[in-house]
Amino acid sequence: MELLKQRILQDGHATEDDVLKVDSFLNHQMDIDLLNEIGKEFRRRFAGEPVNKILTIEASGIGIAAIAAQHFGNVPVVFAKKTQSRNLDGELYTAKVKSFTKGKVYDIQVSKKFLGPEDCVLVLDDFLAKGQALQGLLQIVKESGARLAGCGIVIEKGFQEGGKLLREQGIRVESLAIISSISNGTVTFA
Amino acid sequence: MELLKQRILQDGHATEDDVLKVDSFLNHQMDIDLLNEIGKEFRRRFAGEPVNKILTIEASGIGIAAIAAQHFGNVPVVFAKKTQSRNLDGELYTAKVKSFTKGKVYDIQVSKKFLGPEDCVLVLDDFLAKGQALQGLLQIVKESGARLAGCGIVIEKGFQEGGKLLREQGIRVESLAIISSISNGTVTFA
């Protein structure tokens, strides 16, 4: 997606060899016009799929998913929670996710009320690197019996293994910008 | 907001004397049509204000703010972070927030790059109860020198003191549904 790549080059900030900060438009401050273009592009790529629910994970995925849902006929968005919450009721799907940046394993949770065999789910997230959070979401989709339309990712770090592992499992992953390297502050796309 | 009150009565779930679960449409699964009506109503109430930025806090505020922004001319949305994040760059505004449910004090953070004296900010959140998170956001707005248009809240627990304390400080708080009591599973609006 050319608009996104240009924006990454213009406003992204590569600070270390594997870190890309996009906090000015994607995951701290959100550019709503850009999110709408992103949503439109996800719709174009998953046009053939009868998506009736979008699944994401707090926090950065939520804005992307909420805006994208409008391009899928205002389907409901469910966001997995990373912490125990008083807001969650009844039985839960749970998956364990390993965080490399935080050096720990945490649970993600989705209420069983909101995902089941009747659903065709599109999983959305802002970043795909090692793919741990996404694998957790996919485990929950599988357990629920829902049909998986695929995964829509805004920025994939193509030099990490997450995308490769998912595609090897036969999962459709559509990444709007795939970065092949970040080196000395320079971002190169695949 | 009548539509919201009806939805709370229909799909909300009052479990204890002070707990209202709205996870089927607001803070776990999100009803995008309802969020658009909520955004429209916030726009109507703050029609006179030259809002050029929306500030909220992760996680449940993000979807509400992203959709609402579309009714304010697609202004950028900034969400305060509750945890230390590698995604945050440079200098930060920080405020301490006391969580009664979790029994601890945590920091919320907003990058100084995204809030300053040139901004007219609308602060949005899903719930207002004791108002601790909102007070933290307002402290950050004050420190930034931005003008505060006011606070837009989806559901205010009118039987807790947060709204009263804020209004006594002269802050404009617009809550779309104000609950006067939750008792034996029954929700009563003010």
Characterization of the model:
The structure is a homodimer of 190-residue chains. Chain A is an alpha/beta fold and 190 residues long. Chain A has one domain (2-80, 114-189): Rossmann fold (3-Layer(aba) Sandwich), CATH 3.40.50. Chain A is 28% helix and 35% strand. Chain A is globular, with a radius of gyration of 16 Å. The model of chain A has no long low-confidence stretch (mean pLDDT 95). Chain A binds chain B through residues 13, 15, 19, 21-24, 27-33, 35-36, 58-60, 62-63, 65-67, 69-70, 74-79, 81, 85-89, 101, 110-111, 113-114, and chain B through 13, 15, 19, 21-24, 27-33, 35-36, 58-60, 62-63, 65-67, 69-70, 74-79, 81, 86-89, 101, 110-111, 113-114. Strand 5 of chain A pairs antiparallel with strand 3 of chain B.
Task: Quickly describe the structure.
The structure is a homodimer of 190-residue chains. A 6-stranded mixed sheet of chain A has the order 5-4-8-9-10-11, with helices on both faces. In chain A, strands 1-2 form a two-stranded antiparallel sheet.
